[in-house]
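Module 6 notes. Inverse folding takes a fixed backbone as the condition and produces residue identities as the prediction. Think of it as a translation problem where the source language is geometry and the target language is the twenty amino acids. Below is one complete input and output pair. Work through it position by position during the lab.
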């Protein structure tokens, strides 16, 4: 006994025994409200299902006697086959709707993933652009820093050269001033030295004159003293000679 794909116990096999399973009492009609799907996910329209059921009933009317179907089969196999066909169609529609829903879900998921991928790509591009701008800004800042460093080095070198030149000029000026001052001091010193030499010579000459005068006066005084002493000695010698002569004469006289 064969069954349609997706059939379950309780359905009627249209190619087998109509009494093989109980009548499909629990087979529901397709209703879109009983199968909610996520937002923005398409589903088989309920009106389309109703139209499909109506068309199925219109295309499969109960067999009549003119078609060679006994009337006594209307309550058994005919309606069982019709019901099973309707159930099969409903199951097919349900399966188709489920597949459609899955496809819609997959499409929606794909669209969401694609949207997210596009958004991520856009964000990546924006981030890449921002990174490129940041890199450019960093490169510009580095270039500015290098330029500032070069300018600072050039300025420092210029200031150093200017200070060295100024110092050299000041040293040269000071050397010139010192040379002028030295020359002036030498001249003044020579003049003062000449004056001092003259004064010293004059003072020495005066001192020599005074010394000679003092020495001459002292010599005269000493000479006078010597002359005085010599005079006294002469008198004393004369007196002594006279006394000696008198003694000699008296001794001679006594000898006679």
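Target side of the pair, the amino acids:
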């Amino acid at each position: 006994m064969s069954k349609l794909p997706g059939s379950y116990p309780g359905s009627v096999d249209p190619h087998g025994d109509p009494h093989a399973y109980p009548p499909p009492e629990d087979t529901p009609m397709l209703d879109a409200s009983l199968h909610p799907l996520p937002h923005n996910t398409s589903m088989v329209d309920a009106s389309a299902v109703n139209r499909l059921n109506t068309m199925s009933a219109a295309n499969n009317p109960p067999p009549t006697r003119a078609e060679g179907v006994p009337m006594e089969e209307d309550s058994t196999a005919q309606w069982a086959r019709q019901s099973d066909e309707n159930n099969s169609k409903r199951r097919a529609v349900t399966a188709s709707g489920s597949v459609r829903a899955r496809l819609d879900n997959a499409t929606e998921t794909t669209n969401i993933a694609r949207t997210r991928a596009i958004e991520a790509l856009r964000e990546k591009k924006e981030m890449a652009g921002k990174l490129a701008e940041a890199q450019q800004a960093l490169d510009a800042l580095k270039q500015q820093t290098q330029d500032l460093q070069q300018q600072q080095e050039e300025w420092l070198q210029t200031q150093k050269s200017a200070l060295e030149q100024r110092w050299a000029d000041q040293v040269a000026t000071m050397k010139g001033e010192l040379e002028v001052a030295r020359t002036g001091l030498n001249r003044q010193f020579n003049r003062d030295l000449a004056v001092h030499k003259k004064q010293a010579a004059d003072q020495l000459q005066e001192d020599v004159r005074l010394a000679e005068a003092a020495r001459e006066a002292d010599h005269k005084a000493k000479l006078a003293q010597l002359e005085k002493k010599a005079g006294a000695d002469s008198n004393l010698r004369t007196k002594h000679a006279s006394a000696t002569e008198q003694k000699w004469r008296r001794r001679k006289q006594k000898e006679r």
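Reference fact for the lab report: The chain has two domains: 1-123, 181-243.
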